[in-house]
Amino acid sequence: MSAWEGGAFGDRARCVLAPNPGIMTLDGTNTWVLREPGSRRSVVVDPGPLDETHLDAVADAAGDVAVVLLTHGHLDHSEGARAFAERYGCGVRALDPEHRLGGEGLADGDVVEVDGLEVHVVGTPGHTADSLSFLLPAEGAVLTGDTVLGRGTTVVAHPDGKLGAYLDSLQRLHALAEAREARWVWPGHGPVIEDALGALDHYLAHRRDRLEQVREAVRVLGQDATPREVVEHVYTDVDPVLWGAAELSVRAQLEYLRG
Question: Which of 9, 26, 42, 188 is the most exposed place for a label (fewest CB within 10 A)?
Answer without folding.
Answer: 9
